Amino acid sequence: METNVTRGSRPRAIMGMAAIFLTTCVLSSVGPLAAGDLPVADAELDPSTADARQLAATAFTLGLVAGGPLVTLVSARLGRRPLLLLAVAATALVIVLPAFLAGTTVLVATAAAVGSLYGLAFGVACGLAASMATAAWAGRAVSVAFAGIAAGAMLGPVTQAWLSELFLSSSLLILAGAVLIVIVLPLLLLVPSPTAVRRERGGTVRGIFRPRALALLGLGALLLGGQPTMVTSGLDLGAWIQALSSSQLIALVAGFAGVAVVLTVAGGWAADRGTLGAMLAANTVLVLSPALLFFMDGGATAVAVVAVWVLAHHALQAPILLGLIKVAGPAGYLAAPVLLSAVHLGSVAGSSLVGRISEFGGSPLVMLSALAVGLVAFPLMAAARQAKAPAEAGHPR
């Protein structure tokens, strides 16, 4: 397998990182559109529309969970930058199909394709980001891709709600495709093209299934997928949010998105100093937060606790991925899409568990379950503690 490393000028590396950030930001914003999360008029809300949306959401998840790693594996020998350009271009072309072709089949097929391409693009983006940095800066490099996802996930719904007042649902899909083609693709040309410096044989898939790698994937499923579903399901902050005006809500979301980006990169910095220490510190917050929320009924204090919990969640992402890249070795190019799959599987499992728990104990029992998830994560971190030092780890492709 080729190991790609880029050594270019600092200005071009910075521009390349900015392009990676924008790419993952836009993809995480438009992804829900393909998953059926489109603002529609009340006249369009009928049972068949609701069923189609549910099928699209399921197809998107299946595409991301299964299709992302599979497409990444099949395309492993292609150049990283051309592959990312191809993934973004394909996403732009596919996402506009429901605007021109009606039918549930088209919507479901589009959602599955976009989910697969999203997983592929995220994995390639992480590999390209790491290739632009030294091994000692690998955590900060991959955190840029996560930071883009954080910004897109927070700002995307606000932007879509605003645009839905100006455009029809079909026009939103066309606009999403146009942004990818006109803005994102040209910026990706700024990303330095990795140069193959050596080839490795064997172990290109097995590394992702090593015990320590499975422990890290378990952490991703529990802490990045399952626990967030539990905590958000166990909260009722609707009254607090409804008390805010539209301008206040937009300002709050934008400001918090900026802080989340900073904390995500800070998590990458901490990972470069030691993945285990970074994970332990972040998980301590993830354990304490649901413990405090168990005794709260809402209000400003609960909102503050949730905000700290969300920031710790973002700070944990890069350490888990960097640890997985190190442990996987030659299979490091699969680390990002497989981790994304584990996170979404954990989210699905967490949602199912919340449904069962809510029948017995309501919100307090859900918070206790979220606390238990955080506690279970500590032994998994111990199982993954033997990851190689940054200087010994190769870059993902």
Description:
About 75% of the residues lie in helices and about 0% in strands. The chain is an all-alpha fold and about 400 residues long. It has two domains: about 5-195, MFS general substrate transporter like domains (Growth Hormone, Chain: A, Up-down Bundle), CATH 1.20.1250; about 205-390, MFS general substrate transporter like domains (Growth Hormone, Chain: A, Up-down Bundle). The longest helix has 30 residues, at about 300-330. Strands 1-2 form a two-stranded antiparallel ribbon. The chain has helices at about 10-35, 45-75, 80-95, 95-100, 105-130, 140-165, 170-190, 210-235, 240, 245-275, 275-295, 300-330, 335-360, 360-385, and strands at about 1-5, 195-200. The chain starts with a strand and ends in a 14-residue tail after the last helix.
Q: Report how far apart the termini are.
A: 9 Å
Question: Outline, from the CA principal axes?
Answer: globular
Beta percentage is under 5%
CATH class of the largest domain: Mainly Alpha
What is the CATH superfamily of the largest domain? MFS general substrate transporter like domains
Specify the structural class: mainly alpha
CATH fold name of the largest domain, please? Growth Hormone, Chain: A
The tally of strands reads 2
Q: Count of helices?
A: 14
Work out the radius of gyration: 20 Å
Provide the spatial order of strands within the biggest beta sheet: 1-2
Number of domains: 2
> What is the CATH architecture annotation of the largest domain?
Up-down Bundle
**Share of helix, binned:** over 70%
Largest sheet: 2 strands, antiparallel
On the 0 to 100 scale, the average pLDDT is 81
Low-confidence stretches: 1-5, 39-47, 196-203, 387-397
